[in-house]
Amino acid sequence: MHLVTITNGTYRGEEVHNQTFEMVKDLTVGAKSTFITVRPNDVIGAGRDKIRINVRADNVAYDNKATPKVEENDEAVMQRIGERFEILDEMTKATVSGDVRAMILQGPPGVGKSFGVLKQLEQASLFNDIKNIAPGFEVIKGAMTPIGLYMTLFNYSDKDNVLVFDDADGVLYDELSLNLLKAAMDTSKKRKISWSSQSLALEKEGIPDSFEFKGSIIFITNINFDNIRSAKLQDHLAALQSRCHYVNLSIDTARDKFLRIRQIFQTGELFTGHPHITRDLSLEIMDWVNENKDKVRELSLRLPIKLAELVKVSPSNWKRMGMVTLCK
């Protein structure tokens, strides 16, 4: 039995001062408050099995002097993740407007990183179409050579252009490409990009061996920079981070990923484009995901979409097919 003394808190609007309780569950961060779950004492909550007292961590004293462990409930996790995506939308808009010149977006695959960025860029592009202005952004995917990166930076070097690197993490492991990227994402007033060696490819395209880059860059990556072990690469990535804004979506655990799926499900957007998925079927799919979240190869927004495809293939056997094709 662990006892806690609450020096200052509230229970159902009433103040709690210097009261000792038997702890049931440690501090939990809710959507609106932080609370601790305890057994009632003779003064507070008499007649109940357990109660929640709203309290700050520094107003709780533990009998065993243990450091309090604050646990987020599901609503708080989804609120935290939702706030990160709201910030991402604002940062993407700022990149389009040129107020932010470079941003790195980090998060696991399949949580909606690219979708959020591209949605904002397409809205800006639609506005450009109305004004009869050429599209000002390009999405770069896959492998790219250093000379290819240099040429791409030149082609989108004008003000108001936005380059999006998505699934292009190979650039980070090539020192020459990484140096070009650092120059393009620098905070200096003038960002000069140079190619010091002779190149027939540049001559053929009429591209100079140096130019000023005035555009903006969004680099979307699955790599958590904090987990890189190579000391040399760590130095490069730290230099890259220091040059721009770094948005970590903070979706690190299987629980976070599942709650992100639930979050999108609650918006009604998860099965857009799959009209054969009725409300009842969508609930069945979410139940399947919840029951098998520890068994699947990848827990992401792609998982329920794959299940929706299996429902179309075999309405009566999709669950079994999912176990075979999607689980470890």
User: Could you report the average pLDDT, rounded to the nearest whole number?
Assistant: 88
- Major beta sheet summary: 8 strands, mixed
From the helix content, strand content and strand pairing, which structural class follows?
Answer: alpha/beta
CATH homologous superfamily of the largest domain - what is it? Answer: P-loop containing nucleotide triphosphate hydrolases
Q: Per DSSP, what share of the residues sits in E-state strands of 2 or more residues?
A: 15-25%
| Rg | 26 Å
The residue ranges in which pLDDT falls below 50 over 5 or more consecutive positions are 129-135
Number of domains: 3
- The third-level CATH topology of the largest domain is Rossmann fold
Number of strands: 15
Q: What is the H/E order?
A: EEEEEEEEHEHEHEHEHEEHEHHHH
Give an overview in words.
The structure is a single chain. The protein has 328 residues and is α/β, with parallel strands linked by helices. The chain has 3 domains: 3-72, no CATH class; 76-248, 3-Layer(aba) Sandwich (Rossmann fold); 254-326, no CATH class. Helices cover 39% and strands 21% of the residues. It contains 10 helices and 15 strands. The protein has helices at 74-97, 113-130, 146-155, 175-184, 200-205, 231-242, 254-267, 279-292, 302-313, 318-326; strands at 3-6, 9-11, 14-16, 19-29, 34-39, 51-55, 60-62, 71-72, 102-106, 137-141, 162-166, 192-194, 210-212, 216-221, 245-248. The strands form 3 sheets. Strands 1, 2, 3, 4, 5, 6, 7 and 8 form an 8-stranded mixed sheet that branches. Strands 10-11-14-9-15 form a 5-stranded parallel sheet, with helices on one face. The longest helix has 24 residues, at 74-97. It is globular. Mean pLDDT is 88; it is low at 129-135.
